[in-house]
Structure prediction request, 727 residues.
Amino acid sequence: MNMSLIDPTVATRTAQALTGRPTRVALVGTGYIAESHLMALRAHAEVEVTAVCDVDGAKAGAFGMKHGIATAVGSVRELLDAARPDAAHVLVPPPFHEYVASELLSGGVHVLLEKPMVLESAQGKRLVGHAAISGVRLGVNHNYTFHPLFVRMLADIRAGRIGRPQHAVVFNNNPLRQLAAGDFGHWMFAAPQNIILEQGPHPISQITTLLGSVISASPAASGRRDLPGGRVFFDTWQASMQCERGTAQLFIAFNREFPESWMHVVGEDGSIRIDLGHGGYAIHEKTRWPDFYESTLTARRDAKAWHAASREAFYGYVLPLLKIQPRRDPFFIGMKGCVGAFHRALRDGSALPVSGEDGVAVLEACEKLTGPAIEEARRNPPAAAPAIVEFIEPRAGEVAVIGATGFIGGHVVQKLLKAGKPVRLLVRKPNVLPAHLCNPRVRFVKGSIDDDAAVNACVRGADTVIHLASGGGDAYADFERTIVKGTERVAKACLQFKTRRLLYTSTVAVYYFGDGGAVTEETPPDRKYEQRSHYARAKVESEKLLLQLFRERQLPVVLLRPAVVVGERGRPAHTGVGQWPKDTICAGWGAGVTPIPFVLAEDVADALVLAIDKLQIEGTSFNLAGDVRLTAREYISEMQKLSGRPMKFHPTPLSLTQASDLFKWFIKLLIRKPSNPFPSWRDLKTRAFFANLDCSRAKRVLGWAPVADRARFVDRGIRAAIEPPKS
Prediction:
C-alpha cells in the first residue's frame, strides 16, 4: 500500500474542510461496477452519495431513482454546477478516465479512479501532476490489495513471521464470460494490451504492494486469437519480474475451464500461500523440531487452516444470503476496504491507500508485460475479413435477418449466401461482426429490435424477413419486452412495407411433452403456458400474436419450431440434455434414457432457406428435429470420447429436481429476492421429452432432409461445438 510522501498542505486543508460533516460523493458512470461502489460507500457513515452522473442522462436518472440519489445529471459540468461534490468515483469506461478525471480535478474535486487508472502510464503521470496543481487528491481503486486474505498476509509479514519476502508466485486461471459468449464489443478486446489493463491490475497491484515497483520483466503471451474487426487477443500471459524488493512470477489465463486463483510468497524464514478463489490460508514457519516432525506439524496446521476456510466460505455465503449477517464475501470486503480507506485518508490527512503514483507503477508494469504482444500483433496482423457496408437501397430477392449474430443466425446467413441470396442484417455493433457474417453480399442496419426506426429500416424493401432474435432477463416483463414486443414490432413493419414472407423462428418449447404420445404440427401449443418458463410463455404469446395478424390482416407468416439445436459455435453443455452445475457434470432431466429431439443448426438453416420460396405455406408451422436422437447418456458419452475430459452424467429424478428448485425458491422468498417465479413442474416434465416430436410435415412440404447418419451428426453436432473456434 502507498507509503509515498504527500503534500501536507493539501492533506490538512482537505481534512479541515470535511470536519463536522459527511463527505459529499458523486458517482460518475452507471455501468455494472457502479452499484458495487455505491454499496461500499453506504457501508461507511462518514460519506454520503449525493449525486450521480452519466453521459446518458436517462440512465443517470434511473440509477438515481432506484437508489434514492437526489441529483442525477448528464455531464461533469452539470455535476460541478448542481452538486459541488467533495469527491467523485470515476466509473466510466477506461478510455474516458483521463478526460473525466481531468475535468473533476480542475473543478477542485478529489478523485477515486476505478482500475485501470488510465490506458497509459504517461496519461497517469499527467493526472498525478494535474491533481498536484489543482490542490486535490487522486486515488485508484485497487481493491485486491484489500482482499481479506491479502491483508492478513501483509499483517503476518509485517509481524516478521516469514522474514523478508523474497519471491512471489501469482496464479490466475479463470473463465472470461465475454470471451466465451463471443461478446467482443467490450473495450478489453479492442487491443492486445487491453485485457491486461482490465484484469492485470488485480494481481499486479498485489505484487507491487508486496515487493515494490516492477523494474524489469520477461513476458510471454500465447493463445493468440484473431477476433472480428482485425483485432488480436492473447488468452494466456506469463512473466518473470524483477521488483524493487524481490522477484515474482505471474501467470494469467482467460477462458480456462477450471477456476484457480492463488498467491504464494516465500520469505527468508517461511512462506505463506493464500487461495483467493476458495478462501484458504496456510503459513509455514521455521520451528525447533526436526524436519520430519516439522513436516508433520505443518501438514496438521494446514489441514486445520483449510477446514476453517471451508467453514468460513460456507457461512460467509449462507448467513448474508439469509440476511442474518451483513455481506462479507471477499470482493465486497475488498471494495469496502479500499473505498473506506480512501475516504478516511481524505478526512484525516493521511497518505492515500492507493495513490495516483501507485496506479502509475501498476500501469508501467502492465506496459512491461504487454510490449512484446503488441509488437507481435503489429508484425503479424490478422487477415482482414471482408468489409460489410451499410444498407441503403433494397436489392432484388433480398433477405433481412434479425438476430443474425446468434447461434442459429450465423448458420442461416451462411446458407443464404450459399444459395445466392443478398442479405441485410439488423445488428447493434457492426464493427465487431464475426468473420462468418462478413461477405460482400451482406449489408447491415445498425440498431436493435427495441428500436422502431431500426426495425423499419431493416424490413423496408426486403423480399423476406427471417426473425431469429430472442431475449431474456429476470422477470417475465423482460421477456415480454424483448421477445413478444420485439416480434410485434417486426410483424407490423412487415405489414407496413408489404414484405412477401415473414419466417418466425419459434421453438418446440411451446408444446407440452409431459403426457407422452406424439407431438405434431397439429398439436396446439401448451394451453397452460402461463405455468411454463418465461421463455416458453413469451414464445407462445408471440405465436398467438402472429397468427392473429395472419387471420385478421393477412400477415404472410410461417412458423418454424426448432428442437434441441446443436452444432458449430454452439454450447456443448446444452440445457436440452440436463442441468450443468459444471461444464463436465450434467444432472439429467430424469434417467437420461429418453431420445432427445436434437437438430443441427445447419439443418435448421436449411429449413429456413427452403421455406423462403415454397408456395402457399403462410399460416403454417413446421417442427424441426433431426433423425438422430441420442439419449442424454449417449450424448455425454460422445462428449467424453471426443473431448477426452471426465464427463459425468447423473440421472436425476424429476421429483428431486423439483424439490431442489422449491428449496431455492423458498430461500429467495425469505430474502425477498425480486423476480422469483414459482418452480414449474409442468416445464420440468416438458424438458424430459416424454412425447415423441413428429417432423414429417417439414420433410413432406418443404423437402427438408436433416442429417440421418449418426457419425455425421456426432461430427457436426458435438465435435464441431467442442473444438476451439478457428481464428
Observations:
- DSSP finds 23 helices and 28 strands in the chain.
- The chain has a mean pLDDT of 92.
- The longest strand covers residues 214-227.
- The domain at 8-141+332-355 is CATH 3.40.50.720 (Rossmann fold).
